[in-house]
Design goal:
With 194 residues, the protein is an alpha/beta fold. It has six helices and eight strands. The protein is globular and about 45 Å long.
């Protein structure tokens, strides 16, 4: 009886996993973007930058009332992509370039969490609290926009995005040596495969 009950539990778990996996859209590729001022959007968006293919989308990581965007919702990726008062950055044309080269049924989504002037420690699970305690006041305000932890925000938005579609990779503008993260994933040059 125990074996039969155990088999039913395993079968139910496999079925639930299969349903969850098949609910993800394989034609929606999502990239987690994090970093400093360049990723945040240091450049000023011009009029031509506001024309964006609807297949390129952004999952808003903070509320941006001036853009009429809410945290946790998908929007066409018209810059700014990080926060409501930032500019245009590498995630903008990264996504546009991908969409232009992919089949018409494929969409590209980005999640952009960036803080100008920060060190990579702000996105390190073990070290971000100690580092965040030492930053200038102006940076503390940006960190607060991300709920006090840009690290937790990028992880949380990544999980939300994963529930929405297929996550492919996460990239940073910071060049890091190759290492294995605490979750066992290989990391090289700021990119983590999922």
């Amino acid at each position: 009886m125990k074996n039969k009950l155990g088999s039913i539990v395993v079968l139910a778990a496999l079925l639930a996993f299969t349903i969850a996996a098949s609910a993800q859209d394989p034609n929606f590729h999502i990239y987690l973007c994090f970093g400093q001022s360049n990723m945040e959007g240091a450049g000023r968006a011009e009029e031509q930058d506001k024309t964006v293919d609807e297949r390129f989308q952004v999952l808003q990581a903070v509320d941006a009332p001036n853009l009429k965007r809410e945290k946790g919702k998908w929007y066409t990726a018209v810059p700014p992509l990080a926060r409501g008062r930032t500019g245009i950055g590498p995630a903008d044309y990264f996504g546009r370039t991908l969409v232009a080269g992919l089949p018409k049924e494929v969409r590209v989504g980005v999640v952009n969490v960036a803080v100008a002037g920060c060190k990579i420690e702000l996105f390190d699970k073990e070290n971000y609290p100690a580092y965040a305690a030492t930053v200038p006041q102006w940076m503390s305000g940006i960190i607060k926009e991300y709920g006090g932890s840009p690290y937790q925000r990028v992880v949380g938005m990544g999980k939300l995005a994963r529930r929405t579609a297929s996550s492919r990779a996460s990239c940073s503008t910071r060049a890091n040596p190759t290492r294995t993260t605490s979750s066992g994933r290989r990391r090289s040059n700021g990119c983590t495969t999922t």
